[in-house]
Amino acid sequence: MNIKRKNTTKEYSWKVPSFECGVLSEPLLAFGSQHQHIDPKTGLALYGSYSLVGQDKPSITSIILGIVGPPSMISDAEQWLRSCKNIVTNEGKEPFLYPHFPGINTGLPFQCELIFGDTWREQIKQEEITKAIDIINFNAKIKRIVELYIEAIEILSQREPKPDVILCCIPQEVIEYCTKKNIDGVNRRIKLSRKERKVLKEAKMGQKFFPFPKDYRVLKMEDEYLPYENLYRGLKTEVMRFSIPTQLIWPKTLQLIDQKEKSKRSTQDAATRAWNFFTGIYHKAGGSPWRLAEIESGVCFVGISFYRDLHEKNTTLRTSLAQAFTSAGDGYVLRGNTFEWEDDEKSKSPHLDYTSAYSLITDVIDLYKRQNRGSLPNRIVVHKSSRFWEDEHKGFEDACENIPRKDFVAFGWRGVQFYRPGTYPPLRGTYIKFSECNFLLYLLGYIPFLRSYPGPRAPQPIEILEHHGDSPWDTVLTEILALTKMNWNTADFACGKPVTLAFSRKVGLILAELPKYQKPKEEYRFYM
Hints:
Layout lengths: L1 E5 L4 E5 L4 E4 L5 E2 L5 E2 L2 H8 L14 E8 L1 H13 L29 E3 L5 E3 L2 H8 L4 H20 L7 E5 L2 H6 L2 E4 L2 E4 L4 H12 L8 H6 L11 H9 L6 E4 L20 H15 L6 E2 L6 E9 L9 E10 L4 E10 L13 H18 L7 E6 L5 H10 L5 E8 L17 E6 L2 E4 L20 E8 L3 H11 L15 H4 L1 H9 L16
Parallel strand pairs: 6-7, 6-8, 6-9, 9-12, 14-17, 17-18
Antiparallel strand pairs: 1-2, 3-19, 4-5, 4-13, 10-11, 14-15, 15-16, 18-21, 19-20, 20-21
């Protein structure tokens, strides 16, 4: 409808916005004995971890934890693990948002015994860590730290019984001297060692004289190729060959008493840290804390993304990546084809050609069949963070030829924002429908069950730019909302993105540092 308003000098004309809106019901999660609840923490506390139909208890009853790191931090980690076998409390001011942690033991919620001790402990000498930190070249420093931890992990991997998960205790000095932050678009070191500062000072004082000191030349050679650019990714990459998931632990995780941080960064209370930590550990050990209760069986969700291989000198090369998640919550990672792509005004986001798109989805289907006794999925849902190009879409379609139903969903962000009347932000699950295939969806927002909006600033909606497929739009949106509850790195109520896309960049950066000759692990828990 067009509205025209006349004025003495001009005639104004504009279009009245046309849209529909509503709120989706909060997706339910399944816990022990098939009991259901909308909140992960409440559901776990009441009913325990997910158990299969006909079983009274979850599939895993014990977790063997290996621990590597400097001696003092290993002691701190074991003390913290012992304390978390019992209830961990907090201030109790927001009992729904931040409930007490009930403990991890043979009772609810996890019904699982933690096993750790001298057999699964491997120390890294503090002097070796100090020597590594003193290395001037940043990448060489990272390489040596990774080597120290991998040597210790390799020893633990040969113990019997083998650990289910290995905890890597990272001391504060390693974090400070082996971390870069993006400052004004440039990755900068957050802290330099005394030796590094001395070398830079000497070079600055003698900058009119050549040649520069040898140590200065070493310090400045950080752009030259070395295996790792990041400690986390280096460890995740190298440890894959031992087929044991790892969990990196910072010193602040092990604080037994809540402390107020002097910095602006907020620190989670001890109970929340315990909830998040042990939910992740439980999944890495092979358990399912919960599952989606209302997703039909036989559905395979696939997230498509891209990364640049750090081993390649050609900066125009991109590699495709698929993250696949079954209706049971099992997650897998597949590396696709490498292709040339140059950003241009037409599209900065890479797109697949027909052959690569067809091959990637075919690999996903083959993996699904291997994991499900030869059965094909009943339905495939592809999520992608950019619009589909014609060849790309055709490749996906043809690869799904034998799949009864399929849906292809493209996400984006154009800065469109809506506001709810009053002082509260929009409810989580609020949708705005512009057309049959274009929506806004609030994955974060006010949550009535929590009596709170658990986030800073105003929540930003995600936009569904395209939907091609067989399912009604409300089914597609409800599934997106449900997949925000499948991040087992945390026990939070929900996350800001569906799990198909939430960790694509993180997984891609790990694969980017994986040598070509090394086959990546398929299980998603190795990338968490």
